[in-house]
Amino acid sequence: MVKFRNIRVSLKTGRFYSTRNEYKLICGLEIHTQLNTDNKLFSLSTNAPFKSLNTPNKHVSHFDASLPGTRPKLNYECVLDALKLALSLNCNVNLNSHFDRKHYFYGDQPQGYQLTQHYSPIATEGYMNLYTDIDTIDTPTKKIGIIQLQLEQDTGISHYDNQEKTTMIDLNRSNVPLIELVTKPDFTTIPQVIAFIKKYQNLVRNLDVSTGNLETGAIRVDVNVSVDTYPRVELKNLPNTSSISNAIKYEYKRQVNIIKQGKASELLNCQETRGWNGKETVKLRSKETTIDYRYMPDPELGCVTLDPSIVQNVRNSLPRSSDDEIRSLMEEPYNLSVKNAKLLCVHNEKNEQYTSIEVKDFYLTSFDLFQKSNAKLSFKEKKIVANWVINELLGNLNKLELSLREIKQSFPPEKFVEFIQLIHDGKISNTGGKTLLFYILNLIKEKSISVELNLPKLVNELKIEVQSTINDDELLSQCKDIIDEVNESDPKLIEAIKLGKRINLLNYLVGIAMKKTRGRVKPTEYQRLFKFLLKIE
Ligand SMILES: Nc1ncnc2c1ncn2[C@@H]1O[C@H](COP(=O)(O)OP(=O)(O)OP(=O)(O)O)[C@@H](O)[C@H]1O
Ligand SMILES: [Mg+2]
Ligand SMILES: [Mg+2]
């Protein structure tokens, strides 16, 4: 064995072995996104690849089935969506793009070729910025370059019946509009890849150009993985972000092991495509065996020629970017945490009770009203609206399985602010507020609100109004009882509080007392009494 810097050479086999601990991971993505336009890319059939899984071959025009004599006609709605995405991703728009035929034979591709934009895509040279706080990546910022963005057709779907040993073809998906986005190989860690995908998903949902779901295949991600300067391996069939993360991890380790064992010249000498079976990556084909697609410009579709004013109009119509929205919510007057700001700006596909947009609207309207009726709010006081909307209201909606839409009618932001005002003015305590909110939402759930909510009346009914004149004697005996009760079950605790060792435990006693009076007495009042009884300063 001979040793060079970072490399050992076996004298017996002549193989190179690496001795380094650091192997550089490099990833690049190819993302296919199904557009949610009404019609398909080159025909007037309905674009509904998922709704129609039980009704195969229902949305198929003569062109989608490639009957001889049919010709493509470009659906400009797809071009508009591509422009929205391209401009949001800071790309240069190509004013004269065109379509090419990518030839390959497969049952679910009856044309014998796919129409794509190989030579002259609609947009090139863009980027997306990732930030450590918003996107939880491991470096302060990361800029991911985008090589190109192109329009193309989706294929049909093949269903293999194992029992019958037949393949059935469903052409509902044939000719569904896709956008293929190709990034530069700029990713150096897995969190960067996941952050990019999540941000991209949010973008397509914000622009309303796609459902953005990975699980249904509306977004399909191929990940190219390489180590140092060795050729890349392309990973396909990755149905969700955890598969993407696990597949990259596995593939990186596999390639590093090959390099360490000195087998790179045998096993990592050419591009390869691999799939993911949930546990490991498996070889599908190597680049040597890939077919020559014989790309050629499509003679039937003309150039996609765009007037510069169209591009400018689309640019002007774009919604504000999520990053800008999040940042502005983190600043004055809102001062939200990054977590809460994201909750209002990032779509949550799993929650059906409210969308981020609905919550954001509800929060912003409430905040505005609250600020208008309370001049000069302190930093802390401004946070009260976010706390009651995000922590309390949403928490209760989840618990009660209510949607924001359902409650907005009887409990709109105007009423909600009236409710918050009661707490802000000290008419009811936080505990009282929680009781009241839960009570109101329950009334809504049981559909027991026929007239407008009368908050003062409810406060009365629930007996949660903070007492302005406090009967010290009554409260003192109540506090004494609590000390006795706690002393019985945990004498050490009272002793510790008395000795001033665990003064924060005083709030434990205050909590018990608050519960007993359902928040009618201010916590500071209880603190004063407990301190008096336990003789602590
Ligand atoms: N050294 C590398 N390591 C990892 N990824 C890489 C590397 N070099 C290029 N890539 C990535 O490989 C992808 C290349 O995609 P592209 O669509 O251009 O070609 P392809 O994969 O050969 O074609 P096809 O569209 O047929 O899959 C890009 O996402 C790019 O970032
Ligand atoms: Mg590829
Ligand atoms: Mg590609």
Structure description:
40% of the residues lie in helices and 18% in strands. It folds into three domains: 16-297, no CATH class; 320-462, no CATH class; 472-534, no CATH class. The strands form five sheets. The protein has a nine-stranded mixed beta sheet. Strands 1-2-3 form a three-stranded antiparallel beta sheet, with no helix packed on it. It contains 18 helices and 19 strands. By secondary structure, the protein is α+β, with helices and mostly antiparallel strands.
Task: Give the SSE layout.
Layout: E1 2-4, E2 7-9, E3 16-18, E4 25-34, H1 76-88, E5 92-93, E6 96-97, E7 100-103, E8 113-116, E9 123-131, H2 132-135, E10 141-153, E11 157-161, E12 166-170, E13 177-183, H3 190-206, E14 219-227, E15 233-236, H4 241-260, H5 264-267, E16 272-276, E17 281-286, E18 296-297, E19 304-305, H6 308-317, H7 322-330, H8 338-345, H9 356-373, H10 379-400, H11 404-408, H12 413-424, H13 430-445, H14 455-462, H15 472-489, H16 491-498, H17 506-516, H18 523-534
Parallel strand pairs: 15-16
Antiparallel strand pairs: 1-2, 2-3, 4-13, 4-14, 5-9, 6-19, 7-8, 7-18, 9-10, 10-13, 11-12, 14-15, 16-17
Helix pairs in contact: 3-4, 7-8, 9-10, 9-12, 10-13, 12-13, 15-16, 15-18, 17-18
The structure holds adenosine-5'-triphosphate and magnesium ion (2 copies).
One magnesium ion binds next to strand 13.
